[in-house]
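To: structure subgroup
Subject: Chain for Friday's discussion

All,

I'm putting the inputs and outputs inline so they're searchable in the archive.
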Amino acid sequence: MHPFVSLETKHFLGHRKVVSAVTWNLDGTRLAAAGDNTGLLIWDAEHIEANARPERRVLHECRGHSKNIEVVLSSPTSPYMYATAGLDNLVNIFDIRADTRPSASITTDSKCLFGEWAPDGNSIAIGTDTNNLYVVDCLSMKISKKFPFEKDFNQFRWSVDGKRMYLTRGDGSVDVDEWPSMKPLTSMRGHARACVGIACDPKSRFIAVTSMDTCVSIWDALSVTNIFTIDRWEVPVQQAEYSHDGQYLALLGECQHIDITESTTGGLRYSIPTGAKVNDMAWHPSQNLLAYAPLPPRYPPADYQPAVCVWGLARA
Protein backbone atom coordinates (compact mmCIF):
# COMPACT_ATOMS: atom_id res chain seq x y z
CA MET A 1 0.00 0.00 0.00
CA HIS A 2 1.39 3.41 -0.97
CA PRO A 3 2.00 5.68 2.06
CA PHE A 4 -0.18 8.38 0.49
CA VAL A 5 -3.22 6.22 1.30
CA SER A 6 -2.86 6.90 5.05
CA LEU A 7 -2.47 10.69 4.75
CA GLU A 8 -5.23 12.89 6.11
CA THR A 9 -7.00 16.11 5.14
CA LYS A 10 -7.57 19.21 7.28
CA HIS A 11 -10.41 21.68 6.66
CA PHE A 12 -10.06 25.46 7.03
CA LEU A 13 -13.37 27.26 7.51
CA GLY A 14 -14.49 30.87 7.36
CA HIS A 15 -15.87 31.48 3.90
CA ARG A 16 -19.61 31.65 3.49
CA LYS A 17 -19.78 30.97 -0.24
CA VAL A 18 -17.72 29.21 -2.91
CA VAL A 19 -13.93 29.39 -2.51
CA SER A 20 -12.43 30.37 -5.86
CA ALA A 21 -8.64 30.48 -5.39
CA VAL A 22 -6.01 29.37 -2.88
CA THR A 23 -2.31 29.99 -2.20
CA TRP A 24 0.39 29.59 0.47
CA ASN A 25 2.64 32.46 1.45
CA LEU A 26 6.39 32.45 0.82
CA ASP A 27 7.42 30.37 3.86
CA GLY A 28 4.27 28.26 4.18
CA THR A 29 3.24 29.73 7.53
CA ARG A 30 0.03 31.21 6.13
CA LEU A 31 -2.73 29.79 3.94
CA ALA A 32 -4.84 32.26 1.94
CA ALA A 33 -8.02 31.75 -0.05
CA ALA A 34 -10.39 34.00 -1.96
CA GLY A 35 -14.14 33.63 -1.91
CA ASP A 36 -17.35 35.16 -0.58
CA ASN A 37 -17.36 37.22 -3.79
CA THR A 38 -15.15 39.93 -2.30
CA GLY A 39 -13.01 38.54 0.54
CA LEU A 40 -9.53 37.09 1.08
CA LEU A 41 -9.10 35.04 4.25
CA ILE A 42 -5.70 34.15 5.72
CA TRP A 43 -5.18 31.37 8.30
CA ASP A 44 -2.23 30.36 10.47
CA ALA A 45 -0.70 27.30 8.81
CA GLU A 46 2.62 27.09 10.65
CA HIS A 47 1.62 24.08 12.76
CA ILE A 48 -1.19 22.15 11.08
CA GLU A 49 -2.37 19.22 13.17
CA ALA A 50 -3.72 16.03 11.63
CA ASN A 51 -7.02 15.77 13.46
CA ALA A 52 -10.70 15.92 12.66
CA ARG A 53 -11.19 19.40 14.11
CA PRO A 54 -11.50 22.04 11.39
CA GLU A 55 -9.47 25.24 11.68
CA ARG A 56 -11.84 28.17 12.23
CA ARG A 57 -9.54 30.94 13.49
CA VAL A 58 -8.92 33.44 10.70
CA LEU A 59 -5.89 35.72 11.19
CA HIS A 60 -6.73 38.29 8.51
CA GLU A 61 -9.78 39.12 6.43
CA CYS A 62 -8.85 41.36 3.50
CA ARG A 63 -11.48 43.28 1.56
CA GLY A 64 -11.39 45.51 -1.50
CA HIS A 65 -13.41 43.93 -4.31
CA SER A 66 -17.02 44.47 -5.34
CA LYS A 67 -17.28 41.28 -7.41
CA ASN A 68 -15.89 37.76 -7.27
CA ILE A 69 -12.13 37.25 -6.90
CA GLU A 70 -10.65 34.94 -9.53
CA VAL A 71 -6.93 35.22 -8.71
CA VAL A 72 -5.01 35.15 -5.44
CA LEU A 73 -1.21 35.36 -5.46
CA SER A 74 1.48 35.45 -2.78
CA SER A 75 4.74 37.31 -3.16
CA PRO A 76 7.82 35.17 -3.96
CA THR A 77 9.98 37.55 -1.92
CA SER A 78 7.85 38.56 1.10
CA PRO A 79 5.69 36.37 3.39
CA TYR A 80 3.39 39.35 4.05
CA MET A 81 2.43 40.42 0.53
CA TYR A 82 -0.58 39.18 -1.44
CA ALA A 83 -2.36 40.20 -4.62
CA THR A 84 -5.92 39.54 -5.75
CA ALA A 85 -7.68 40.16 -9.06
CA GLY A 86 -11.33 39.83 -9.89
CA LEU A 87 -14.35 40.31 -12.07
CA ASP A 88 -14.59 43.97 -11.01
CA ASN A 89 -11.53 44.72 -13.21
CA LEU A 90 -9.40 45.39 -10.12
CA VAL A 91 -5.99 44.19 -9.01
CA ASN A 92 -5.47 44.73 -5.27
CA ILE A 93 -2.14 44.40 -3.47
CA PHE A 94 -2.10 43.77 0.28
CA ASP A 95 0.64 44.10 2.89
CA ILE A 96 -0.89 42.45 5.94
CA ARG A 97 1.71 44.03 8.24
CA ALA A 98 0.07 47.39 7.62
CA ASP A 99 -3.62 46.82 6.97
CA THR A 100 -6.25 44.44 5.67
CA ARG A 101 -7.25 47.07 3.12
CA PRO A 102 -5.37 47.26 -0.19
CA SER A 103 -2.10 49.18 -0.14
CA ALA A 104 -2.63 49.64 -3.88
CA SER A 105 -5.56 49.14 -6.23
CA ILE A 106 -5.05 49.02 -10.00
CA THR A 107 -7.83 49.09 -12.61
CA THR A 108 -7.68 47.07 -15.84
CA ASP A 109 -9.92 47.25 -18.92
CA SER A 110 -12.08 44.23 -18.09
CA LYS A 111 -12.54 41.10 -15.97
CA CYS A 112 -9.33 39.66 -14.52
CA LEU A 113 -9.15 35.89 -15.01
CA PHE A 114 -5.51 34.84 -14.67
CA GLY A 115 -2.46 36.03 -12.77
CA GLU A 116 1.14 35.29 -11.87
CA TRP A 117 3.78 36.97 -9.70
CA ALA A 118 7.24 37.17 -11.31
CA PRO A 119 9.99 35.13 -9.61
CA ASP A 120 11.97 38.28 -8.72
CA GLY A 121 8.92 39.78 -7.00
CA ASN A 122 9.06 42.97 -9.08
CA SER A 123 6.11 42.38 -11.42
CA ILE A 124 2.62 40.92 -11.42
CA ALA A 125 1.04 39.83 -14.70
CA ILE A 126 -2.74 39.78 -15.08
CA GLY A 127 -4.73 38.34 -17.98
CA THR A 128 -8.19 39.71 -18.79
CA ASP A 129 -11.16 38.35 -20.72
CA THR A 130 -10.40 40.80 -23.55
CA ASN A 131 -7.07 39.02 -24.17
CA ASN A 132 -4.91 41.75 -22.69
CA LEU A 133 -1.90 40.97 -20.52
CA TYR A 134 -1.22 43.69 -17.96
CA VAL A 135 2.06 43.98 -16.07
CA VAL A 136 1.96 45.75 -12.70
CA ASP A 137 5.22 47.20 -11.40
CA CYS A 138 5.42 46.30 -7.70
CA LEU A 139 7.57 49.32 -6.83
CA SER A 140 5.41 52.04 -8.37
CA MET A 141 2.21 49.99 -7.90
CA LYS A 142 1.14 51.03 -11.39
CA ILE A 143 0.64 49.32 -14.74
CA SER A 144 4.00 49.38 -16.52
CA LYS A 145 3.10 47.44 -19.68
CA LYS A 146 0.09 46.19 -21.60
CA PHE A 147 0.35 43.43 -24.20
CA PRO A 148 -2.76 42.94 -26.39
CA PHE A 149 -3.34 39.56 -28.07
CA GLU A 150 -5.56 38.92 -31.07
CA LYS A 151 -6.45 35.37 -30.05
CA ASP A 152 -7.47 33.76 -26.77
CA PHE A 153 -4.92 32.92 -24.11
CA ASN A 154 -5.50 31.20 -20.79
CA GLN A 155 -3.16 30.51 -17.88
CA PHE A 156 0.46 31.65 -18.14
CA ARG A 157 3.66 31.16 -16.15
CA TRP A 158 7.12 32.61 -15.94
CA SER A 159 10.04 30.22 -16.18
CA VAL A 160 11.80 29.54 -12.88
CA ASP A 161 14.59 32.01 -13.77
CA GLY A 162 12.08 34.62 -14.96
CA LYS A 163 13.61 34.89 -18.44
CA ARG A 164 10.68 33.37 -20.33
CA MET A 165 6.91 33.65 -20.31
CA TYR A 166 4.72 30.69 -21.30
CA LEU A 167 1.15 31.45 -22.43
CA THR A 168 -1.40 28.71 -23.07
CA ARG A 169 -3.52 29.38 -26.14
CA GLY A 170 -6.99 28.48 -27.32
CA ASP A 171 -5.67 26.80 -30.47
CA GLY A 172 -3.89 24.02 -28.55
CA SER A 173 -0.46 25.65 -28.47
CA VAL A 174 1.75 27.40 -25.92
CA ASP A 175 3.63 30.57 -26.79
CA VAL A 176 7.19 30.80 -25.46
CA ASP A 177 8.21 34.45 -25.25
CA GLU A 178 11.30 36.25 -24.05
CA TRP A 179 10.82 38.33 -20.92
CA PRO A 180 10.48 41.30 -20.54
CA SER A 181 10.29 42.10 -24.25
CA MET A 182 7.65 39.40 -24.98
CA LYS A 183 9.55 38.68 -28.18
CA PRO A 184 8.34 35.31 -29.56
CA LEU A 185 10.93 32.55 -29.20
CA THR A 186 9.04 29.42 -30.21
CA SER A 187 5.69 27.67 -29.91
CA MET A 188 4.87 24.37 -28.19
CA ARG A 189 2.27 22.49 -30.22
CA GLY A 190 0.94 19.24 -28.81
CA HIS A 191 -2.83 19.43 -28.27
CA ALA A 192 -5.96 19.09 -30.37
CA ARG A 193 -8.00 21.49 -28.25
CA ALA A 194 -7.39 24.56 -26.08
CA CYS A 195 -4.48 24.52 -23.63
CA VAL A 196 -5.75 25.83 -20.30
CA GLY A 197 -3.15 25.14 -17.61
CA ILE A 198 0.63 25.17 -17.30
CA ALA A 199 3.18 24.42 -14.57
CA CYS A 200 6.97 24.74 -14.40
CA ASP A 201 9.03 22.21 -12.47
CA PRO A 202 10.94 24.11 -9.71
CA LYS A 203 14.13 22.30 -10.78
CA SER A 204 13.74 23.70 -14.33
CA ARG A 205 13.52 20.25 -15.91
CA PHE A 206 9.92 20.03 -17.11
CA ILE A 207 6.92 22.02 -18.25
CA ALA A 208 3.47 20.46 -17.87
CA VAL A 209 0.59 21.61 -20.09
CA THR A 210 -3.07 20.69 -19.51
CA SER A 211 -5.73 20.77 -22.17
CA MET A 212 -9.41 20.45 -22.96
CA ASP A 213 -8.49 17.40 -25.08
CA THR A 214 -8.10 15.43 -21.78
CA CYS A 215 -4.31 15.05 -22.19
CA VAL A 216 -1.35 16.44 -20.25
CA SER A 217 1.85 16.98 -22.22
CA ILE A 218 5.25 17.03 -20.47
CA TRP A 219 8.02 19.04 -22.13
CA ASP A 220 11.76 19.39 -21.64
CA ALA A 221 12.21 22.91 -20.26
CA LEU A 222 15.58 23.43 -21.96
CA SER A 223 14.96 22.11 -25.47
CA VAL A 224 11.17 22.75 -25.38
CA THR A 225 10.47 19.32 -26.88
CA ASN A 226 7.74 16.91 -25.84
CA ILE A 227 8.96 14.05 -23.62
CA PHE A 228 5.74 12.15 -22.91
CA THR A 229 1.99 12.58 -22.60
CA ILE A 230 -0.40 11.54 -19.83
CA ASP A 231 -3.55 10.35 -21.58
CA ARG A 232 -5.47 8.34 -19.00
CA TRP A 233 -8.04 11.08 -18.28
CA GLU A 234 -11.52 11.00 -19.81
CA VAL A 235 -12.41 14.62 -18.99
CA PRO A 236 -10.60 17.93 -19.65
CA VAL A 237 -7.61 18.55 -17.38
CA GLN A 238 -7.67 22.12 -16.10
CA GLN A 239 -4.69 22.60 -13.79
CA ALA A 240 -1.26 21.17 -13.06
CA GLU A 241 1.03 22.00 -10.14
CA TYR A 242 4.52 20.68 -9.26
CA SER A 243 5.44 19.96 -5.65
CA HIS A 244 8.19 22.04 -4.01
CA ASP A 245 10.89 19.49 -4.83
CA GLY A 246 9.59 18.67 -8.30
CA GLN A 247 8.98 15.02 -7.42
CA TYR A 248 5.20 15.08 -7.87
CA LEU A 249 2.78 16.64 -10.31
CA ALA A 250 -0.80 17.24 -9.14
CA LEU A 251 -3.54 17.26 -11.78
CA LEU A 252 -7.15 18.34 -11.49
CA GLY A 253 -9.99 18.46 -13.98
CA GLU A 254 -13.73 18.23 -14.33
CA CYS A 255 -14.05 15.36 -11.85
CA GLN A 256 -14.11 14.69 -8.12
CA HIS A 257 -10.49 13.79 -7.49
CA ILE A 258 -6.95 15.14 -7.79
CA ASP A 259 -4.28 12.87 -9.24
CA ILE A 260 -0.79 12.83 -7.72
CA THR A 261 1.68 11.59 -10.34
CA GLU A 262 5.43 11.02 -10.55
CA SER A 263 6.86 14.00 -12.43
CA THR A 264 9.50 11.97 -14.29
CA THR A 265 7.20 9.23 -15.59
CA GLY A 266 3.61 10.44 -15.24
CA GLY A 267 2.82 7.33 -13.24
CA LEU A 268 -0.18 7.63 -10.93
CA ARG A 269 0.72 7.45 -7.23
CA TYR A 270 -2.57 8.40 -5.59
CA SER A 271 -5.96 9.99 -6.31
CA ILE A 272 -7.24 12.35 -3.63
CA PRO A 273 -11.04 12.01 -3.36
CA THR A 274 -12.44 15.55 -3.17
CA GLY A 275 -16.20 14.89 -3.04
CA ALA A 276 -16.80 17.62 -5.63
CA LYS A 277 -15.12 19.40 -8.51
CA VAL A 278 -12.21 21.63 -7.48
CA ASN A 279 -11.68 25.30 -8.32
CA ASP A 280 -7.98 25.63 -7.49
CA MET A 281 -5.04 23.95 -5.77
CA ALA A 282 -1.56 24.88 -4.51
CA TRP A 283 1.39 22.94 -3.08
CA HIS A 284 3.07 24.05 0.14
CA PRO A 285 6.44 25.76 -0.64
CA SER A 286 8.54 23.28 1.36
CA GLN A 287 6.37 20.26 2.28
CA ASN A 288 4.25 17.74 0.42
CA LEU A 289 0.99 19.36 1.52
CA LEU A 290 -1.60 20.20 -1.11
CA ALA A 291 -4.27 22.85 -0.49
CA TYR A 292 -7.36 22.75 -2.67
CA ALA A 293 -10.70 24.55 -2.92
CA PRO A 294 -13.62 22.21 -3.72
CA LEU A 295 -16.96 23.38 -5.02
CA PRO A 296 -20.06 22.58 -2.93
CA PRO A 297 -21.27 18.99 -3.41
CA ARG A 298 -24.29 18.44 -5.61
CA TYR A 299 -26.46 17.68 -2.59
CA PRO A 300 -24.83 19.51 0.34
CA PRO A 301 -25.87 18.47 3.85
CA ALA A 302 -27.72 20.92 6.06
CA ASP A 303 -24.58 21.73 8.05
CA TYR A 304 -22.33 22.20 4.98
CA GLN A 305 -19.69 24.94 5.17
CA PRO A 306 -17.33 25.94 2.34
CA ALA A 307 -13.77 24.90 3.17
CA VAL A 308 -10.21 25.01 1.99
CA CYS A 309 -8.75 21.51 2.33
CA VAL A 310 -5.13 20.63 3.04
CA TRP A 311 -4.15 17.06 2.13
CA GLY A 312 -0.92 15.28 3.07
CA LEU A 313 -0.96 15.27 6.86
CA ALA A 314 0.48 12.22 8.59
CA ARG A 315 -1.41 10.72 11.49
CA ALA A 316 0.19 11.31 14.87
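Points worth raising on Friday:
Residues 225 and 249 are 18 Å apart (CA to CA).
The mean pLDDT is 95.

D.
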